[in-house]
Amino acid sequence: MQSTYELPRLKMVKVLIVEDDAEKLRRVCQCLLAVPGIAIETMEDARDVVSAKRLLREKQYDLLVLDISLPERADQAPAHSSGISLLSEMLERDIYAVPKHIIGLTAYEDARELALPSFERDVLQLVFYDPASREWEEKLHRIAKRVVQSESNPVSTPDYQTHLCILTALATPELEAVLRLPWAWKPLILPNDPSVYQEGSFGRDNQSFKVIAASAPRMGMAASAVLATKMAMTFRPRYLAMVGIAAGVAGECELGDILVADPGWDYESGKRTIRNRKPVFAAQPHQVSLDPFLRGKLGKMAQDRAILDEIRRGWYGFDPKTILSMRLGPVASGAAVIEDPSIVDGIKFQNRKTIGVEMETYGVLIAADECPQPQPTCFSMKSVCDYADPHKNNEFQKYAAYTSATALKEFAERFL
């Protein structure tokens, strides 16, 4: 008799959307309803602060999507401070049934800047709504998907077995820099697996956290994606990190700066065709955004000058003569090493805010995104060793590998 595998049943999560703009509300609902585990029957909305307070007093929701700019009452104009005030009151007063998961949403840059300190303080997510872009939908969809998974928590889902897996594209200098971290590394050979892993650990709050590291057999998205998949399924890590070196975009960063990919994409994805007898590349990139919960923590570290200065002072080589920074932004992946700045200019047409270009990150992010449960939370933090031009320097490769690996150490020990 043939056996069948039954997928675990997802819990239907209850969602409250506080939004006064009808079109934005429609698009938010459309985005959330695409997530299995969210249905129109379990979704409610409020158009002003007073209505939202009433619902939050009466009902328990799993997920709250909160517009920052809201009217206090239906007969008033929206104010940028209303959503922040509602959030503060909800978290401080026990008369409200506070949702387990809260996402801020705004279409205004000044409202975003006003709200960001409050959301970072409480480690909450804030999504910038741009009606002309799909990036906000991707972020909101990913958050909602993780909310459903965390609320469902099916018994049949295996537990995490490792805290952190680290992968690099190169053994030298990238993995070498990782293995210099004081995490008591020792080789780990698995039967029937050609990869050589390194096992280590770090401590925090009287706890020990297991770490596995390895380098891919060659550069490129395919090799790193395969290694990422193997590590995710073999070691079941809670977090999966890619570190190493990357090309920076001139004017956006300095040599040695740590680039956290948000989002990552394959800049060569699209269609090559002929138009008006000329070759044309029509880009069709699929972008993978950084996990929003992790982004808040990485954003905090990026603003911590003391941590970055400590990393800079720990470098054992030449003086790079630059202040070390950590930057979160778009990082593009492609199949070839670039030594032509004009190619970078072409990549920036796909995302004008691009800060870096490399060869592996998108493959690792998409591999983690498609893993079976328990899925690792994946991120990439590579450091700048050149500007995608012919002027490459092996010493800066070593420095970039050092800042990338050491930044990961500081982030893991303080925030993960």
Describe this structure in words.
This protein has 416 residues and is of the alpha/beta class. It folds into two domains: 15-152, 3-Layer(aba) Sandwich (Rossmann fold), CATH 3.40.50.2300; 162-415, Nucleoside phosphorylase domain (Rossmann fold, 3-Layer(aba) Sandwich), CATH 3.40.50. 36% of the residues lie in helices and 25% in strands. The chain has twelve helices and 16 strands. It has helices at residues 22-33, 49-58, 80-92, 109-121, 135-152, 171-179, 221-235, 292-302, 305-313, 341-348, 361-369, 394-415; strands at 15-18, 43-46, 63-67, 101-106, 125-128, 162-168, 186-189, 196-204, 207-215, 237-248, 258-266, 270-275, 278-283, 326-333, 356-358, 377-386. The strands form three sheets. It has a five-stranded parallel beta sheet, sandwiched between helices. The chain has a five-stranded mixed beta barrel with strand order 10-15-14-11-16, surrounded by five helices. A two-stranded antiparallel sheet has the order 12-13. It is globular. The termini are far apart.
Main β-sheet, in a few words? 5 strands, parallel
> How are strands sequenced across the largest beta sheet?
2-1-3-4-5
What is the H/E order? EHEHEHEHEHEHEEEHEEEEHHEHEHEH
Count up the helices: 12
Which fold name fills CATH's third level, the topology of the largest domain? Rossmann fold
Number of strands: 16
- State the low-pLDDT regions, or none: 1-7
List the helices and strands and how they pair.
Blueprint: E1 15-18, H1 22-33, E2 43-46, H2 49-58, E3 63-67, H3 80-92, E4 101-106, H4 109-121, E5 125-128, H5 135-152, E6 162-168, H6 171-179, E7 186-189, E8 196-204, E9 207-215, H7 221-235, E10 237-248, E11 258-266, E12 270-275, E13 278-283, H8 292-302, H9 305-313, E14 326-333, H10 341-348, E15 356-358, H11 361-369, E16 377-386, H12 394-415
Parallel strand pairs: 1-2, 1-3, 3-4, 4-5, 6-9, 6-10, 10-16, 11-14, 14-15
Antiparallel strand pairs: 7-8, 8-9, 10-15, 11-16, 12-13
Helix pairs in contact: 3-4, 6-12, 7-11, 9-12
